[in-house]
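Quick start: read one record
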Amino acid sequence: MQKEKGIKSRLVASIFALIIMAGSASLLSGCSDRTPETEPTQSVTAASTPYSPPKTEDIHCDPVKAYSGVFAEDGKKTEVKDVASVLVENRSQTFLDRAIIKYQYGDKTATFVVTGLPAGKKCRVLEASKMQMDTKQDKKQDKKQDKKTEFVFEDCICTFKEDALLVTDKVSVVAKDKSVEIKNTSMKTLKNICVYYKNTDSDGTYIGGITYMIVANSLKPGDSLTKPSSNFSESSEIVRYSFMEE
């Protein structure tokens, strides 16, 4: 009888452990939900805080770090100091159209928005409201033994675009002096042309979660359109095209 009770106890414990493991897996997979798509010198300090990152087979975030340089997310190119930033990597096999990643930082919510990230690519994303990090809190902690403020992962909503057109021979884009030329290189009239691009750092990492657009309403075969642009340059990389053929 005692042997039978022991077997039952072990069986209950095993079932309980499986339930806990299943719950943990469910929490981690929240960042890969496919639920239902807007211009820099920089330095990233070593200062960071412990965190609970969204990390799945689809998307991964490195530790949150303080960034000083040009704020790229709103296109205004203002200088900022010690703004929270995170390096986001698209580890899926699909184009990441948009991701909104949220962390709790003390009594505040830090929001990081990523758009237009191809599979296998990384981008340095800055906190949307320019939230500053307390880079001196390590010294304060050493002196006062106060509890350190941490970034704690809260939520991540991702939208992937499986039919994204990443390469085409029907549209060409050439950077010129403070302008960009978009040309229809196909044999048909193209309408509603949008060319999406991001700017890159020296190591190939995209700067900012922001994605820029070059738009042309209609171009006949061989026609081109030159538009002013202070953002498109040799360091820019086209990430997606969209257009309609007549």
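Residues 185 and 199 are 24 Å apart (CA to CA).
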